[in-house]
C-alpha cells in the first residue's frame, strides 16, 4: 500500500485523506467535510456531508448491488437542489401563496422511510476473513438508518385567466382564477356569444356567480366564488360540455360587447361603416345587429380609443405642458373662467402657435395672412379660428389656430393680439389681411392694425352680392373689376408680391381638417398637429424633386403666361426698355432692368406679366431668372425646414398643480347635429354631389298637361288637375256660346 493511501486506525474503521476526512467509529457518526479515498484499485469514494440531510455517493457503481444503487440514487437527488442565498429567501407566507402549502407545518419532522443499506463487496460475496481494506460500502455506516427530511413542496399549477388573450374565446377550467367577478361575468357572456348558446346567471352576487345553460336538458354550468385569502375569483364547479343545439339570437350581443370586440378595427379604420361591421359580426357570431346598435357601438369604441370628453378636458393642462416641453418656443395659451362661489375651472379658449410654423412664416413666406373660422361638430360646440399664409409655391401655410366658444368681436380681438405678438407685428404697416366679413373681425382689424391692407374675398362678396343682384353679366363685371391691375395701384401695395383675391388657403385648410372637427378637444388638437408635422416632412421631400428653381405650381403659371404672350408684339426702345402692343389699342412700356411694366402686374406679384414675358422672349432671356426670390426653392425650404416634434403619450405627460378643467356648458340644439356644409342659395346636394337649384323654371306634366308638377307627382296633384278640368270645361262652354252667337 502506498504512503499516500488511506490509513486504517486500530480503534475502528477511520479514513483520513489530505484534509478533513471521514471518520467512522463504532457509533457510525459522520464528521463534517469531504473526503477523497484512493486505493490500489484506483477506486475512489467522495463523500460530501456539508448538507445537513446527508449525501453519500459512491463512484464505483459496479461494486454496488441493484438495491443499493436505487437507494443511493434517491439520496443523491438532494445534489440537484438550488443554492439559496439567505438575502433573497422568500417569506414562508409567500412560499405558501406560491405552492398552496400551509406555512405553519413543521416540515423537518417529516422523514422519508428509513432505507437499510445492504453490505456489498467489490463485486463478489462478502469475505470476512480478508485482511484487505474494505470499501466504505461495507463499513458500519451501511447499517445506519439515514433520515432525510422532506424539503420539496408540491406546486399546483392553476390556470390564470388573461383577458388580453383568453377573452376572444374563453375556455373554462376547474380552479381557473379570475381577477374579479366582473371579468368572470364578461368571460361567461363572451363564451355564450362565441359558442352560440343561451346562458343565464342563476346566482349573481358580489362573491358568488353561477351561470347555467337555459336550454332544456343541457347540464352545462360553471360556478365561481371569491377567495378572500388569495384575493382571486376561482372556478369551484364546472360542467363544460353543452348538449343543446346552437342558437343564433343572443341577448348578450349588445352595443358595449360589439364595441369591445371590434375596438381594434375601429382604431385602424375610424370610418368603418355599418355594412362592414354587420358582416363581420355575422361571420363571428351569426347574429345580426341593428343600425342603432352600430351607432352606439361606434360611439362607445370612440370613447375607449380617445377617452371620454370629460377626461380629455381634465388633461388639458398636462397636454399643454407636454406640447411646450417637446416644442420649445411654441405658444400654447388656454383661457378658463371661474364661476362665483364655485371652485372649478370652465374651459373657454385654447390658442396654439407652434414654434416651427412661426419661424417658417417669418423666414420663408410673404407678409399675407388669411383669417377664417369653421364650426366644431363634436361635443364642444365652438369654432376654430385659423390664420393661414402663402408659401413660395403659392400654397397654403397654416400659422396658428385657436378653439373658441363662438366667433365674435371678443374672440377675434383675443386671437389677433396673440397672433401679432407671436409673429412680431409691431405696427400695421407691411402686413396684408384677407378674410370674409366675419362677425367682429372687421372691427378687430381696424382697431388693432389701422394702417394695414385688408382685402375681402371676392367669392364671398359675390355670394352676398347675388342675393339682391342676380345675373351672369353682373358677376363677370364684378370679377373683371377685381382683377384690374391698373386701378388696383391705389389699393394693393407693390411690396406685398401677392394678388390673391380669394381666401382659398383658409378654405383648403378647413377641408384638410374636416375629419378632425367632430373629435374631442385633445384628439382634435393632436390630429391638427400631426397634420402639420407630416405636411412639413412631405413638403421637404417634394422640394428635392423640383426640376426648376421655382415651384411646380409657379412654373405652370409662367408657362401659361408664355403662351398668352404670343398675342403681344414687342419693339425695343433702348436701355432694356421695350414697347409692347397687345390686341386692340392697349400698349405698355416694359423695363426689363427695373422689372416693371405699365400694367403694374409685374410689380404686384413679382412674376413677369404677359407684356414683360413678350419682351423677355424677344430678347432671348430666360423668364425664370426674372421671377422674384420669394418664389424660389431657397424661400420654400426656409419655410419648411423647421421641425415639429412629436409628443409622448398621456402616461408620460408632466404633472401640473392646476385644477382640472371642466368641459363648457352648452345648449343642445333641436334635431340631429348638422355636419354638412351650408349650401348656397343656388345649389342643392343630390346623391353626394352638388347640383344647381331649378329656380324660376316652370315644369309641365306630360301626363295631364298641367304646370307646376311632373308625371311622377301627377296623382298627388289631383286637386289641381280637377281644378284645371273645371277651368277647361268652363272655357269649352264659353266657346260654344260664342259660336252660337255668331
Quickly list its features.
alpha+beta, 22 strands, 742 residues, disordered C terminus, disordered N terminus
What does this molecule look like?
- The protein is an alpha+beta fold and 742 residues long.
- 32% of the residues lie in helices and 16% in strands.
- Strands 9, 10, 11, 12, 13, 14, 15 and 20 form an eight-stranded mixed β-sheet that branches.
- A hairpin with a 4-residue loop joins strand 18 and strand 19.
- The protein is elongated and about 110 Å long.
Q: Estimate the global geometry from the Cα principal axes.
A: elongated
Tally of DSSP β-strands = 22
Number of helices: 22
Strand content: 15-25%
User: Structural class, from secondary structure content?
Assistant: alpha+beta
The span between the termini is: 171 Å
Average of the residue pLDDT scores = 77
Q: Low-confidence parts lasting 5 or more residues at pLDDT below 50? A: 1-88, 117-146, 726-742
Q: Which sheet architecture does the biggest sheet show?
A: 8 strands, mixed
Helix content: 25-40%
Radius of gyration (CA) equals 46 Å
